[in-house]
């Protein structure tokens, strides 16, 4: 029997209750052992496999939940006779059987949520075939994390969603006790739940592909497992194992749980915050539905430190590290740019701009610029314009710091946001970072009454800054200038890992530094190892990894040019590059234009005026991806009943040819983002595919530029009629 709420919402609770689960297991307790022994190989395989990853030590404390009739006890005692073991079980009848078999052991009844144990009580937790029976899967995993000590290990197993049909067939053909109330989850869903609960997945294994049949057939199971391990067929393994570790993130300075709960109870529901909302709504509506932009806003604005994104978390997704501290203010969900963006509100700061382009947003002036300081120009991704502006503003005391990305001090391979307060720190943070990074976590570091900051951010991150500005968030009082970078997409850290693997680096701890736009423009992705070795690939060759590692939400974003910024910056692709790169600088607000004009007048930047049509043509392929492609993808998701972001934009008209192209683009991303495609691409030299990707990009750019130049194809987005007095 299956029973569940909404199967598409990972954070949702199931429709069945713990009483339903307990009643079922009490009813089949007497036959459970006999039927389990009839499938001895498949049944006991879970213990053999689990304890291969789970090495309890004498003197350590372990929890087995749920323990059923105590079958795991013998394994514990064989490996560590003196381990302090607690067995938690839902069914009183199974506890009676287990206590009769192991009278010296401790068995306690549990409701799974909550677990009746103190915080940080256990070194190890074993949970085999339990998650699918938990009425509240996320709540259960949060409890497992709570009772684990920092750095403690969890070994969890559960069947995948693909096991539902084989189970139904097996139940009809053979006598068995059945599964009772349950919901099998896809392995991807389980990983998202583990992450949201603050548990780091160290290892995921798919096992038991041939659970029944003749003995000679079952002996082939290890071979099948090895063959399909890196392919989508791995989801067919009847038993999925997850070896996890509790994340420990120090968060000093936050109020106690009692203080937070008291504040939450006193806070009334207002238009600014729904007191019924909690971080679980964010996980359910945004993270679980793949709408998270990885901007970090939810972490930065949380008043009680419930959410965190760990620097070593390659998924760059929020996790609940202090779930009980939630004040239920709803702020994390309300300001999230993943679900909904009002472009009218985002562009409001530049409402009086003389040019309003459907493609580029509000525009006052467009320039091709580069820093006059040769050192700054060489250090930058293109012309060094953003670095030059920030350094000059800081040197003259216009700002006290700048929000930028730099290498994390403990993880040098990981870009991480910081507030740079010295010119050398700004220079060190120059260049683009092709890795999803939660810039907006710095919101919690801003001193609203003393800081004067410039912010360098991506479009989705700026959407959140503008939302907070409208709400009167105190951190925005410190912001003097928002500089937006053009952004076609963000990449999972897996792209960097692929780059490292292709050069023989399996352990990221060997990395001393990574520069994503190193050397002469347009630059190369260069890595320096701790032993002094270096290697690099051209930037355009690195672009091939976009197909396999793009963040899914980026394909639904309709903002390439950071339309909500004061100043937007990008590569000026068709500017002369004999003596170095140039930056495209778009001023949008009066504040942004004042800064740009002053930098040119004071000789900080060299500038040339750029026409709107030329600026569009430089990035026509990216604009086509965002302005034409994203609405098509969103409409396709809506037709399928899938979650999609909401915009107050009218999508561009798309010809039949463009729709056909979008169909090809969609399948291109679906195929190349699979594990098997990634495995194959890791074995192909960068140069072999790099040239093909560069050629495809050039063709796309030319084709899109021609379409955007044709008024009938875009409604005159770049035409003189868009100029307003």
Give a short overview.
With 725 residues, the chain is an alpha/beta fold. The chain is built from 29 helices and 24 strands.
Q: Main β-sheet, in a few words?
A: 8 strands, mixed
* Count of separate structural domains: 4
What's the helical proportion of residues?
Answer: 25-40%
Q: Would you state the CATH class of the largest domain?
A: Alpha Beta
Number of helices: 29
Q: Can you put this structure into words, describing what you see?
A:
The structure is a single chain. The chain starts with 17 loop residues before the first helix and ends in an 11-residue tail after the last helix. It folds into four domains: 229 residues, Rossmann fold (3-Layer(aba) Sandwich); 80 residues, Alpha-Beta Plaits (2-Layer Sandwich); 218 residues, Aspartate Aminotransferase, domain 2, CATH 3.40.640; 101 residues, no CATH class. The chain contains 29 helices and 24 strands. It has 725 residues and is of the alpha/beta class.
Provide tags for this entry.
725 residues; 29 helices; seven-stranded mixed beta sheet; elongated; Rossmann fold; disordered N terminus; 24 strands; Alpha-Beta Plaits; disordered C terminus; alpha/beta; Aspartate Aminotransferase, domain 2; 4 domains; 18% strand
């Amino acid at each position: 029997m299956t029973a569940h709420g909404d199967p598409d919402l990972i954070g949702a609770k199931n429709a069945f209750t713990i009483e339903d689960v307990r009643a079922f297991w009490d009813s089949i307790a007497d036959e459970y052992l006999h039927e389990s022994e009839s499938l001895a190989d498949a049944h006991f395989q879970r213990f053999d496999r689990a304890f291969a990853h789970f090495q309890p030590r004498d003197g350590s404390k372990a929890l087995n939940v749920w323990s059923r009739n105590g079958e795991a006890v013998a394994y514990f005692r064989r490996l560590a006779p003196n381990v302090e073991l607690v067995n938690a079980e839902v069914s009183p009848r199974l506890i009676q059987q287990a206590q009769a078999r192991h009278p010296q052991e401790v068995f306690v009844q549990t409701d799974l949520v909550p677990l009746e144990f103190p915080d940080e009580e256990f070194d190890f937790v074993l949970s085999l075939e339990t998650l699918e029976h938990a009425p509240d899967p996320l709540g259960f995993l949060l409890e497992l994390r709570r009772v684990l000590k920092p750095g403690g290990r969890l070994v969890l197993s559960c069947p995948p969603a693909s096991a539902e049909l084989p189970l139904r067939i097996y139940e009809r053909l053979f006598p068995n006790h059945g599964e009772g109330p349950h919901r099998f989850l896809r392995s991807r869903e389980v990983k998202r739940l583990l992450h949201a609960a603050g548990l780091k997945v160290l290892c995921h294994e798919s096992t038991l592909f041939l659970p029944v049949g003749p003995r000679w057939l079952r002996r082939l199971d290890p071979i099948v497992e090895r063959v399909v391990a890196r392919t989508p067929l791995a989801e067919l393994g009847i038993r999925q194992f997850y070896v996890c570790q509790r994340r420990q993130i120090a968060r000093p300075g936050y109020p106690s749980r009692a203080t937070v709960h008291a504040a939450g109870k006193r806070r009334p529901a207002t238009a600014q915050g729904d007191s019924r909302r909690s971080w679980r709504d964010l996980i359910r509506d945004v993270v679980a539905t793949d709408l998270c932009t990885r901007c970090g806003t939810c972490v930065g604005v949380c008043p009680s430190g419930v959410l965190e994104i760990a620097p070593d978390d390659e998924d760059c997704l929020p996790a609940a590290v202090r779930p009980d501290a939630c004040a239920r203010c709803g702020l994390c969900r309300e300001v999230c740019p993943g679900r909904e963006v009002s472009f009218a509100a985002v562009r409001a700061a530049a409402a009086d701009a003389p040019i309003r382009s459907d493609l580029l947003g509000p525009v006052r002036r467009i320039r091709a610029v580069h820093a006059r300081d040769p050192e700054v120009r060489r250090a930058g991704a293109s012309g060094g314009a953003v670095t030059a502006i920030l350094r000059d503003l800081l040197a003259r005391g216009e700002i006290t710091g700048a929000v930028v990305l730099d290498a994390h001090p403990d993880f040098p391979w990981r870009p991480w946001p910081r507030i740079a307060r010295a010119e050398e720190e700004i220079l060190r943070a120059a260049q683009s970072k092709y890795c999803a990074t939660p810039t907006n976590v710095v919101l919690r570091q801003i001193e609203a009454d003393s800081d004067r900051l410039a912010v360098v951010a991506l479009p989705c991150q700026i959407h959140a800054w503008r939302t907070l500005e409208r709400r009167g968030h105190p951190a925005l009082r410190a912001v003097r200038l928002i500089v937006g970078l053009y952004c076609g997409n963000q990449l999972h850290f897996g792209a960097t890992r692929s780059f490292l693997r292709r050069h023989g680096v399996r352990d990221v701890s060997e990395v001393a530094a990574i520069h994503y736009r190193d050397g002469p423009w347009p630059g190369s992705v260069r890595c320096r190892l701790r032993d002094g070795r270096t290697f690099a690939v051209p930037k355009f060759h690195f672009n091939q990894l976009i197909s396999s590692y793009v963040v899914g939400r980026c394909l639904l974003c309709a903002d390439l040019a950071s339309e909500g910024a004061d100043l937007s910056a990008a590569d000026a692709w068709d500017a002369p590059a004999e003596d170095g790169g140039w930056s495209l600088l778009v001023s949008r607000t009066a504040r942004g234009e004042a800064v740009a004009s002053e930098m040119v007048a004071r000789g900080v930047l060299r500038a040339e005026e750029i026409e709107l049509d030329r600026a569009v043509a430089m990035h026509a392929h990216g604009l086509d991806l965002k302005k034409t492609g994203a609405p098509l993808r969103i409409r396709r998701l809506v037709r399928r009943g899938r979650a999609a972001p909401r915009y107050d934009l009218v999508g561009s008209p798309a010809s039949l040819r463009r729709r056909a192209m979008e169909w090809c683009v969609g399948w291109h991303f679906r195929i190349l983002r699979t594990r098997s495609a990634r495995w194959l691409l890791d074995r192909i030299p960068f140069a072999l595919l790099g040239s093909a990707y560069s050629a495809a990009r050039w063709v796309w750019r030319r084709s899109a530029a021609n379409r955007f130049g044709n008024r009938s194809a875009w409604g005159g987005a770049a035409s003189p009629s868009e100029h307003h007095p």
